[in-house]
Amino acid sequence: MAASPAPVEGWAVWARPLGWLALIAFGPLALLPTPLSLLARVWIVLLILGAWTILVAAFIGALAGAATPVTVWLELHLRAWVARFAPDPEALWLHWARQAHRMDQAHRCLDRAVRLGGAEALFQEGLVFLEGGFGAGGQATAVARLRQAAERGHPEAGFRLAEALRTGHGVLRDPAQAAAWYQRAAAAGCGAAAAWLARAHAEGDGVAQDGEQARRWAEAADRLRPHPPLSRSLLRHDAAPEDALIRLGAQVADRVGRAAERVVARRAGRWALGLGTVVLACLALGTAATLFWAGSSGLFHLPLIMLGPPALLLAWQAWRLRREGPRGGRDRLREAAEGGDPEACYRLGLAYRQGSARLPKDDLSAAVWFRRAAEAGHREAMAALGEAYLGGHGVMRDPREAARWAEASRREPASP
């Protein structure tokens, strides 16, 4: 009887590691009633100082548009701590990558899973490269990842590798190796590979025509039914489930970001922010000075200590902004395309196909975005994808696929 898979969601995953984390953080407080109470008080000061530093760093990073916000850094390390206690860390990281609603978070979770070296993680990363999820030039890397996963016994990875070797997609064509990988995948339980071998031996497609072999593989394919559909990249825009709370949070964050951009874009807004910063700084210094002279609760030094990290963070951020100069604005088109908007996907594909000083010409990325829009029913994207297949721009030249998309474009009503 096969063992049940390890849980990857719910309190069963989080309870134990969070319990240990709480014990580490608050356990030393049990020393307060003992002669070692001084150590407990020092620990309390360190906890307050650490929390204050994190809050200030998060606030400054949000204002300055840090590439990796403190909250994201904390989240990643918290997940790494939880994964240490999981029975199957690879499955847990892949689950988090699949559930992620931000592309950068999904990439980080997938990278952590791949570092563990499991077959499923390597296969999933190969799919991402295959579908252009990491940008242009990923076909050869996709084949390499699929080969690593197949060598570790992953059935569908062997089938995908065989397909690449048979068609020359991302690797030199090698029908002999392709047939060998089809057989390995079928022997590992891939029904699609067994079905292909049955048809190939019956028709002599890439292998010797052999009725006995065709019958044997057809029986194997029947035993493996029902054949599950081929996997799709877990970083596709339609892979993350709908979640009302996450969607509402994203909408609120987007509106706040737009409002902040409008404020910063105006001179009066920048002056108001600067004046507010000076006022808050004066209030903080006044409060610190008052507590210092009054010696409140014997912790007169604590406010001054707490002002140290914000001052250092502000100085460092000011130096970095002065060194880097003004930042570029947000790429609204790419954000909309990654959110699944068909029109935005189509326009981003056009931008990659035409090329510009800001966005170099990239036929592979153009084909990827055309396909996303076409799969969502965008008529012009279907026609553009058909042209790409007809001319071999960013994809393998395939007149049949070109005709299929051209026909789909003619049947689809005009996009609004």
Automatic annotation (TrEMBL):
The keyword Repeat does not apply. Gene3D superfamilies: Tetratricopeptide repeat domain. InterPro entries: Sel1-like, Sel1_AlgK, TPR-like_helical_dom_sf. The keyword NADP does not apply. The chain crosses the membrane at residues 12-31, 43-74, 271-294, 300-319. Keywords: Membrane, Transmembrane, Transmembrane helix. It comes from the Bacteria. It holds the Pfam family Sel1. This is Sel1 repeat family protein.
